[in-house]
Amino acid sequence: MMNSLKRDLDLKDLIIIGVAGAVGTGVLFSTAGMTALAGPGVVIAWIVGAIMYLFVGLTYVDLSALYPEAGGPSRYSLYSYGRITNLINAFADLIWYLFIPPVEALASVEGINYFYPHLINTAGSPTTLGALLGVILMVLFFPFNYFGIRAFAKSTDFLGVIKLLLYILVAIGFIAFARFSNFTAYGGIVPFGVGGIFAAIPLGMFAFGSIRVIPDYAEEVRSPKIIGRAIIWVVLGQTLIYVLLAVGFLTSINWVALKLHAGSWSAISSIAGNPFLTIASGAHIGWLIAFTVIIAILGPFVTGYIYQGAGTRILLAMSRTGLVSARMKEINQHYAIPVWALVVFTVVGAIVAYIAAPLPSIYNLISDAVVAGYLGFAVNPVVMLALRKQGREGKLQQGGLVAAIAFASASLIVYWSGWPSVPYASILLIAASIIFGLAYKVHEGAKNAIWYVAYIAFLTAMTYIGSVGAKKWINIDVGSLIVVLVSLIVFLPWGVASRLMQIDENTTTPQIAEIP
């Protein structure tokens, strides 16, 4: 067994992986869910979400330059806080990644249901047959990741470009038959106020999370210097597509054809099946239906196998830290991929797809994944500042400001995800951390992890008492302000102060050479 990955990705590959990995279920389903919460404000929600995630993405620019390793974001906290903080952080990331391929597989099932309408029931959930097809699709993701990073890049370059062109054509097609009165006729641009926009943003953040896959592949990049540029281009590219599709969806809503009362924005989330496909079918526009069916199947499929590969790198990173079995870091000699990590990730994902299919709606799965993911993402801005205190200067100017905005953004995204998504994700995260912490005797850095545990508890409590939660004791504006102030005044400095006094000498990072 060789012990190194193959460095074979260039800037073009990273940009296509990032954008093609983003544009899938997150835009097809999240756009409808966001419109139900914000009405025409969905366009504003996408733009605000893009700005928030740009700052989160900038922390990856800084940290990946210091540690260009596979699954890097699930290792960064190790160097400043020890294994317990890293255990919780890594499992938050892993939960996010384990949810996404099943969600994408089930979204492809929604598309296939157009041809064989026995896969989705009248409530919009997969039937038993649909769940089994979701499992089959999870298995079909496997060969895209098994035959090496070059084969993965070539297939993604080809399918990704086709996929993105089709998404743009569909967006233009929807806009071409638009009803622009939908922007203003039913309560104005923000019919539910700013609170509706806040509530909608977390669904959009599911789509933006794909930037995270770029540093996950850092150890397979020809030059780590290109990672920062790739992240910026991916943010810009996916935001353009999201805004186009949001405008297209919003303005193509035909209330009569959908059998909805005009202006009943909240009822849009009850549209059974893929909402874009439902609208296209109701419009009886042949070419638009055909293209929408293709993206309804191909779009989530490509996103699913990209995340399967990136999630495999997280298991590799966790194995290097001693948080999961050492088998997860074994590299296949022929194809230079973490083969056992890929097998385990595929099997667990297939189980999740089958179990999750008949239970919550796809919108609930998205919300739960967002919470886990952003609880993981929130650590990186703190790590960035902690590393600078330890003497590891990053490349970003105004790094303190970037970290503060990124930390506040991640905190708000978790808070806006609401109840019960936050406690569900938190309980799953803590349970996994305890089980694997005991199994792999993780005890280093207990004192350094107190701030992170308290931070998760604080956000969970805020969703309980806030307007997005169970009790609704405080409105969303006041609750959001409290989350920002407490995060920045209490948890950010507490987290930085909780760092190890020096970088842990017992941990190592792979030495990544550049390829000319």
Break the fold down into its secondary structure elements and pairings:
Blueprint: H1 11-22, H2 25-28, H3 30-38, H4 42-66, H5 76-81, H6 83-112, H7 128-146, H8 149-176, H9 193-208, H10 213-216, H11 226-251, H12 275-283, H13 286-321, H14 339-356, H15 362-377, H16 379-389, H17 399-417, H18 421-439, H19 450-465, H20 476-497
Helix pairs in contact: 1-8, 1-11, 1-13, 3-9, 4-9, 4-11, 4-17, 6-7, 6-13, 6-14, 6-15, 6-18, 7-13, 7-14, 8-11, 8-13, 9-15, 9-17, 12-13, 13-14, 15-17, 15-18, 16-17, 16-20, 17-19, 17-20, 19-20
Question: How does this model look, in words?
Answer:
With 516 residues, the protein is mainly alpha-helical. The chain contains 20 helices and no strands. The chain has helices at 11-22, 25-28, 30-38, 42-66, 76-81, 83-112, 128-146, 149-176, 193-208, 213-216, 226-251, 275-283, 286-321, 339-356, 362-377, 379-389, 399-417, 421-439, 450-465, 476-497. α6 (83-112) packs across α18. It is globular. The relative contact order is 0.19.
